Each structure stands twice: as C-alpha cells, then as structure tokens.
Amino acid sequence: MQEQPGRLLVLGLGNPILRDDGVGWRVVEEVQVRSAPARPLSGATTNTGGAEFDCVALGGLALMERLVGYDRAVLVDAIQTRHGRPGAVYRLGLDDLPTLNANAVHDATLKAALELGRRLGAELPDDVTIIAVEAADVLSFGEGLSPAVEAAVPEAAELVLQTLREIRVRNHHKPARTRSQI
What CATH number does residue 14 fall under? Predict the structure, then answer.
C-alpha cells in the first residue's frame, strides 16, 4: 500500500504574545495568504500543492510529536544569534542549529527529539528545513513584532514559498515511500 507522496507540513513556531517570538506565526499566515487557491471565473479552484499549514507554541518532544506522519517539514521560527541583525532571514538545516544541553527531556533540542522519535519507530520527516528570522525582542509581552522583524516578514514568506517550490520539484522526481519502507 502506498502513502500519498510528499506529505508536507509548514509549521509556524513561537509564542505570538512575546513580541518577535511570534514571527513564525506571522510568516506562515503570510504564506497562506499568498498561496491561497485562486478562484478563476469558472468557479474552479487551483491546487496549492498539498501543504498543510499550522502554528504552534511547542518545542522538544511535543514538537517532534506534531511532526509525526509527515515526509517533509518547513519550520518557521525566530532566532537570536550572537551577532545577528534583527530582521535577517536564514534558511537552515537541522545540522545548522546550535547544540544545547537540555535540563530535562521536554527541553530536548529538535535534532535530539527527532533522533529519539525515530529510534522509537515514529514516522518523522526525512527533510526538515528551518526558515528563521533574527529577532530583536522575544522576552517582552506584546502581540506586535518589532519594526525590523515585521519588515522581514515578506522576505521570509517568499523564502518559504521558494522552499516549497524546491520541495515539489524534488517530490516530482522521488518515488513515494511505501509502508514497508517506513
């Protein structure tokens, strides 16, 4: 039995009431607006490519559980780097993320949580891309993004859309996984 090829999740991460930490949600909302099916005069809708969109305030093992069942995932989140410029947009892989020591299992890094999930037999994405926006303020309560981060939303949304196009091209050339391969 074959699964539907290329189950794809675009997931906005962060907390929308902690200023720039909500940028992942804001970018995913923008991507959804830009990729909404057009309604031609005939009333037919166009295919948006089959990506599922969601926004969550999860990390570690809870985030890993949200990724179960997908072949590919694009995660959108805020990031703070040592010398980063607020509003800078990055495309990263799991190996690009810093390795941090966790104090508890629920604080596991994404990479560690995915490795644990796979060892336990969970069906997790083979392909995870992170679109990150350099944040200025992720500690203050407030629903709006800082000006530099808000200005980066269109660029980050375009990078997500570009990533989705690249994934679809790869999907076109890659056979679907079968249950026996999972």
Answer: 3.40.50.1450
